[in-house]
Sequence to fold (91 residues):
Amino acid sequence: MRTSKPITITLGQQQASLDARLQSGSYASASEVLRAGLRALDREDAALDEIMRLKIREAINDPQPDIPASEVFERLRARHNNTLKAGKRDA
Fold:
């Protein structure tokens, strides 16, 4: 018994990419192409998740003292104001 259900999709500009892959013989069906694409997205998501885990672990283990949120927001406001002022000068 089939565990998946048929779907209808509109590829737009990606249709040419799918057709080229089928014509080259790299894939036997559109389903194979789409499954390969989804597997690639899954790998990309997993890699990005791992990068974020490493960055978070790095930040947690950073020996530098924490910066109070009020100071961070003050710096952001100052940077934003400087950007606005620079934009007005260029106009």
Summary: The helical segments are 14-24, 30-61, 69-90.
